[in-house]
Amino acid sequence: MSCINRRWDGEKQKKKYSCPHCRQTFKPRPALVISTELAELVEELKKKKKKKKKKNKKKKTEPQAGPSDHFDAGPGDVGCSPTGRKRKTSSLQPHDEDPLKKTKLIEALNVQENMCSQHDKVMEIFCCTDQKCICILCLNDEHKQHYIVSAAAEFTEKKKKLGVSRQNIQQRIQNEEKIVKQFQQEVDAINLSADKAVRESELTCTELVKLIEKRSSDVTQKIKSQQEYEVSRVKEIQETLQKDISDLRSKDTELEKTLQNR
After folding, report:
1. Phi then psi dihedrals of residue 36, to 5 deg
2. Under 8 Å between Cβ of 132 and 124
3. How many other β-carbons are positioned within 10 Å of the β-carbon of residue 220?
4. How many angstroms separate the Cα of 108 from the Cα of each of 35, 52, 218?
5. What is the average per-residue pLDDT within 178-200?
6. Any coiled-coil ranges, and where (predicted)?
7. What is the torsion angle, in degrees rounded to the nearest 10, for the CA atoms of residue 104, residue 108, residue 110 and residue 111?
8. Which of 5, 84, 154, 160 is deepest in the core (most CB within 10 A)?
9. What's the CA gap between 53 and 57, in Å, rounded?
């Protein structure tokens, strides 16, 4: 900030203040504010570069590995172009099946995938405006006015949001499974009630049929009894009348004889 302030102090007479990087002019003089996030990112990158240099120095001082410690790359195997970018892979055939070396190779390939295709730098910054990962040099190009955070912070935030979303989904699953269970219990209750109603209806119908059959039998019996009684009564009257008729015929015959004798 001190170097920019000195530059702008020299431009005081012009009453125009220019950015030493993009040459954009400002009027009046803007207030300088340190971007803490960007400063942290730059500091973090510096620390990583220092660590990388220390590792490289250690590697140079260490004895080189023998032939059994490297991989033979056959035709079409993994290789790096002069720009450091990954070429097409087909197969890897190590002399020694060392799991640690395989892990290191995979990590190297993963790092290669996170390299900026434009600047060949590791993309450790996330542009919130464009929703993409960028490298430190991309900030000087099309992303210089954008809102940025560290890729690690964005990953942590997105992981946190995904965790919350997953919890919400799991809660919804539990709630809907509970509702489904309640509906199943309701279906079971309806089926039990319907089965009970059918059984009771069948029992009622059976009892009603038995009652009707009994009533029918009783009525039939009563009708037959009444029939026998009426037939007997009528026959008795009929016999009485037949007897009276016979008596009257006898008297008529006697009277006829009496009249003839006179």
Report:
1. -60, -40
2. no
3. 10
4. 32, 14, 103
5. 95
6. 166-200
7. 130
8. 154
9. 6
